[in-house]
TrEMBL record:
Keywords: Metal-binding, Zinc, Zinc-finger
Protein's UniProt keywords contain Ribosomal protein: no
A single MF term (Gene Ontology): zinc ion binding
Lineage: Eukaryota, Metazoa, Ecdysozoa, Arthropoda, Hexapoda
Organism whose genome encodes this protein: Euphydryas editha
Residue intervals of the C2H2-type domain: 338-366
Any one biological process term the GO annotation gives: DNA biosynthetic process
Superkingdom of source: Eukaryota
Protein's name in the database: C2H2-type domain-containing protein
Length: 367
């Protein structure tokens, strides 16, 4: 790898500085104490991920690596090598046309690397469904012998669930940038599994808060927050020469983010998690350097967050149950079609009409 890098230019570089807060972006504009570090590859065993800031640089990097491998009698597998291009948001970009020994490499929108699905838009649109599919298979294989067994206690079943299902479902969750839709998708599957273990059907009308209290487990959001805060503490305590810490305390040396809504960065997610757990963003790194204190703080803060979340859900459910049921005035046109008087929208079913009135014309309900 070092031999291949010698002949390559225009690689991805980052500016890193770990003597300031990770949220202090102005520190990277200093002329001193900022280190420029090239990030050109990620290597694990025989898996290599090459990175470049342009298609030309990537082609030159692959050619150089191919020549270096031939010196040691190694061959790069063309069938196992794929190209993932991350174009600017809102643009498709030109085809990659990256080749190896005259053979065009396949361009994909996502690929699996070290057990995780990486996408060209840096979202979890492929990772979350893949995690759920993998866990569903493992959960189904244990249904007869574990979940439906009358000889195994509930406490033992929950321990098996924590040892097998949750680690697979939340694999690499420490580095996720989760949106509300991703958390909801994972939480639905999490509660579905717990209801299956408890043999609770939807006809029983048992709320999700009661399901979590029966098994003594938190929701998916609390688990992800705990994983990410714990991992952030590990990164803070790493030595200065470690690549994860250099990337954690860095920003790209070139390029900038456009104004307006942007994709979440890990720093944004971390700041949101700290605020959710009532941990100050200006002093958390000093606390994270003390491993026992940080572990205790994360555990207590996440427990308090989950307890408050469940209490808020219970309060909302109580409000819904005590709210008087509205009565609807159904109006029909000359053709006998049900329609909304304020906006004139036509409906085929009364249920759709009722949902529309509750959503857009709630002030006209007869309560």
């Amino acid at each position: 790898m070092q031999d291949a890098v010698k002949t390559c230019n225009n690689l991805i570089t980052i500016n890193t500085r770990s003597d300031r807060s990770v949220f202090d972006l102005s520190s990277f504009r200093a002329k001193r104490q900022v280190t420029s570090l090239p990030v050109m590859d990620i290597v694990y065993a025989d898996d290599v991920c090459l990175m470049a800031d342009s298609l030309e640089s990537l082609q030159a990097y692959i050619d150089s690596l191919h020549q270096s491998c031939r010196k040691f009698g190694l061959v790069i597998s063309t069938s196992k090598t794929q190209v993932l291009k991350q174009a600017p948001r809102g643009s498709i970009g030109d085809p990659s046309n990256i080749s190896l020994e005259g053979n065009a490499l396949v361009e994909v929108t996502d690929f699996k690397y070290l057990g995780s699905r990486l996408r060209n838009d840096n979202t979890l649109a492929s990772e979350v469904p893949a995690r759920i599919a993998s866990v569903a298979a493992a959960f189904g294989k244990l249904k007869t012998r574990v979940w439906n067994s009358h000889d195994i206690k509930l406490q033992t079943k929950i321990l098996v669930y924590q040892a097998i299902v949750l680690p697979t479902l939340l694999y690499a969750a420490e580095t996720w940038c989760c949106y509300r839709a991703n958390i909801k998708q994972l939480d639905i599957f999490h509660l579905k599994c717990l209801r299956s273990i408890l043999r609770i059907k939807w006809q029983d009308r048992v709320p999700n808060t009661e399901v979590l209290r029966r098994v003594g487990l938190p929701g998916i959001e609390a688990l992800i927050i705990k994983h990410q805060l714990r991992w952030s503490g590990h990164v803070v305590r790493m030595s200065e020469c470690r690549l994860p810490k250099a990337v954690f305390y860095s920003e790209l040396s070139c390029g900038k983010r456009k104004q307006g809504g942007q994709y979440l960065r890990y720093k944004d997610v971390l700041k949101r998690n700290l605020a959710t757990c009532n941990i100050p963003t200006d002093g958390w790194e000093g606390l994270a350097r003390l491993r026992p204190e940080w572990r205790s703080t994360v555990h207590i803060s996440v427990e308090a967050f989950e307890e408050k979340r469940l209490s808020d859900l219970d309060a909302k459910r109580q409000v819904r149950r005590t709210r008087p049921k509205p009565s609807y005035t159904y109006t029909y046109n000359s053709s006998g079609q049900l329609y909304c008087t304020p906006c004139g929208r036509i409906f085929k079913a009364k249920s759709g009409f009722a949902s529309h009135i509750r959503a857009y014309h709630y002030d006209q309900l007869n309560i």
